Amino acid sequence: MDVVFKKPHALTDAPLHYCPGCTHGIVHRLVAEVLDELGVEGKAVGVASVGCSVMSYNYFGCDMVQAPHGRAQAVATGLRRALPDGVIFTYQGDGDLAAIGTAETVHAATRGENITVIFINNAIYGMTGGQMAPTSLPNQITQTTPYGRDVNSAGFPVRVCEMLSTLDGVALAQRVTVDSVKNVKIAKAAIKKAFQNQIEGKGYSIVEVLSTCPTNWGLSPVDALQWLRDNMIPYYPLGVYKDADKRDNMKGDKE
Amino acid sequence: MAKIIVDENVCKGCALCVNTCPKKIIALSKSKINAKGYHPAELTDENACIGCAFCATMCPDTAITVYK
Amino acid sequence: MADKVLMKGNEALAEAAIQAGCHHFFGYPITPQTELAAYMAKRMPKIGGTYLQAESEIAAINMVLGASAAGVRAMTSSSSPGISLKGEGISYMAGSDLPALIINVQRGGPGLGGIQPSQADYWQATKALGHGDFQVLVFAPSTVQEMVDLVQGAFDMADKYRMPAMILADGMLGQMMEPVVLPEKSEKEPIAKPWASCGHKGEREHNIVNSLYLTPNALENLVKERYERYETIKKNEQMAEEYLTEDAELILVAYGASSRVAKGAVNKAREKGLKVGLIRPITLWPFPTDAIKRAASHAKALLTVEMSMGQMVDDVKLACEQKLPVHFYGRTGGIIPTPKEILAEIERLMA
Fold first, then answer.
1. pLDDT of C171-211, one tens digit each?
2. pTM of the model
3. What's the CA gap between A165 and C211, in Å, rounded?
4. Which domains does chain A have, with CATH numbers?
5. Interchain proximity A68–C89, CB inside 8 Å
6. What pLDDT is recorded for position B56?
7. Cβ(A86)–Cβ(A78) under 8 Å?
8. Which of B18, C209, C247, C333 is most buried, with most CB under 10 Å away?
9. Is the Cβ of C58 closer than 8 Å to some Cβ of chain A?
């Protein structure tokens, strides 16, 4: 018998610290598989953000830098400019990317910074114990919205892909999820494209992955995936929000 | 012929593999508890595995190796 | 012998950094350091380097962090309110043992303060640039030539000791023009950086540039190791100019712009037959404790002159171990004291 599925090389042997059923692990594996398939682990430098994924520096086999909270894309910009041949990516959660790091995100995107951004949206702050995130849904109960997120006071969630898709510097903005085998395959294809874009010098690519936080949502891992389907996907529709290749084709200006 | 091998010490018993297996032949062990205190997933019918790797695809801890 | 050229302090500093091999500059506009960034914007594209105007001071310092983590020489420049914003990134760089050069062309504070020269960021630079136990190297030039001369050494020391370095200038030094001899392009082989996250090429274990240590013992051990480095620096790297101190009864202590005025006052006092000297700290951290101690062994009193309400004066008192009176004279809010004012203070104290 042949091995048809095994741990990718770009994932280290360090056991993941994530809670049981947390989809961070799936996305980690997809990124590592893509690094393997593109043969770029040795050129890659990843930026770990603050939050649950901070210790991703132990899990990715490529060189890693840990950034201050929200600053991952500024750090990635510095790496990008210093290493013209490097493959630079960030791995960030929703609090990091869409609250404290909004300015860094928007400006890296509008500069068309040639980096790959993996954005985990699980609608909650995981590491600090389940507070409201910028992407928490209206009426979602969290530690800091115990009566549900009141949009009159706490405002509305941020739809990152939609927002960034208006910027000229963005090559790819795509929202995916990992709730099923089919969607994991779509997610992997998106992540691969986001890295390929960078290698081909196309500019900023972001893949938003709708993810679960079973622990802080108070659900079993299986039920959490169902909650994601029932509540998150309707508010955050899956799909490609910007693909520079296709836009150019539509405009016909590359003919 | 196909089979899966679950790294019992890495498995956290989240059951995403149990839920996704099209043949319904993965279950959390009733008898084993690993070093982390979880009941690891195990194959209940070795002859029925088709090597589709759905379980491994959904495993957050890359605890499953698939052979075919 | 290289020719002298007339340059603004900010521009001379920028050129010196380029000559020292720094090809990555990340900044954000703020008065009175603007000429430095503008000069970089002009020069960097010509040499294949990076000039990037960031979206904020916070982003700029974190871009420096990223570039430094990749192993290249990187710098940013700002002025007081912007340095406060950079504090976060500087703390992370100190915690990750990353070298970099940070320029603070100080202006009046607190808050938005003013845009005139000030020295009110001494405490910030030497005691608390951010959270946690750490120091950065702090250099205080007093002429445009010295701004140039300190840059190469600042980069070299930052690399050697793996820590951020700061040049603490002020609006007066940044804006004034003086003749300056620019350094030759550094021929020194850059120090190896085996710790850099620049892609392992499958040839080594992956490098991790990180400041997170969740085990208290591991964090304590790391901080202690860093403090051993600091002790070496304190022993070997103090810099100060001692001017007419040998027979002086009253010794002024001043750095940067205020030291220029203080030197003028010392000269005037000497003309009047008063035995007055000057110690001019060039490194503020490490503080030139040895020079102050030497002064304390024979002078009758010290007079610290600053463009602040009195910050460095604390370090002067600590250095002389209260063996003699330490007086203070300062102006703040963007006002540069005149030699006449300082002379009057000297005469009052020596009367």
1. 899 999 999 999 887 777 789 999 999 999 999 999 999 99
2. 0.96
3. 33
4. 24-251 (3.40.50.970)
5. yes
6. 98
7. no
8. C209
9. yes
Secondary structure of chain A: what % helix, strand, coil (to 5)?
40, 20, 40
- In C9-28, the residues whose Cβ lies within 8 Å of chain A are 24, 26
CB C283 within 8 A of CB C138: yes
Residue-number span of the structural domain to which B14 is assigned: 3-67
Contact B20 A7 (CB under 8 A): no
Angle at C341 between CA C339 and CA C347, to 5 degrees: 100
- Rounded mean pLDDT, A104-119: 98
Closest-CA distance, A27 to chain C, in angstroms, reads: 20
Q: What length is written for chain B?
A: 68
Residue A248's pLDDT is 52
Which residues in chain A are contacts of B3 at CB distance < 8 A? Answer: 1
Binary contact (C206, A103; C-beta < 8 A): no
B59: chain A residues, CB-CB within 8 Å: 25-26
Distance from CA of A59 to the nearest CA of C (A): 10
Across chain C, what does the average pLDDT equal?
96
- Closest residue to A20, CB basis, from B12, B53, B66: B12
Residue A254: pLDDT band (50, 70, 90) is: very low
* Gap from C8 CA to chain A (nearest CA, Å): 28
Residue C1 pLDDT exceeds 70: no
What is the residue-wise DSSP string for A52-106?
GGGGHHHHBSSEEEEPPTT-HHHHHHHHHHH-TT-EEEEEEEHHIIIIITHHHHH
| Pairing assessment for the beta strands A204-210 and C24-27 based on DSSP bridges | unpaired
**List of chain A residues whose C-beta atoms are within 8 Å of the C-beta of residue C200:** 41-42, 62-63
Task: Choose among A5, A8, A22: nearest Cβ to B53.
Answer: A5
Domains of chain C: 4-200+222-236 (3.40.50.970), 241-350 (3.40.50.920)
Looking at chain A, which residue has its C-alpha nearest residue C76?
Answer: A78
Q: How far apart are CA C306 and CA C333, in angstroms?
A: 12
For residue C212, what are the CA distances in angstroms to A49, C66, C97, C225, C289? 11, 16, 12, 16, 33
Percent of chain C clearing pLDDT 90 (strictly above) = 96
The total domain count for chain B is 1
Tokens representing A70 are: 């929200």
Q: Which residue is it, tokens 């710098």? A: C75
**pLDDT confidence of residue A249:** 43
Measure B68 CA to nearest chain A CA, in Å: 5
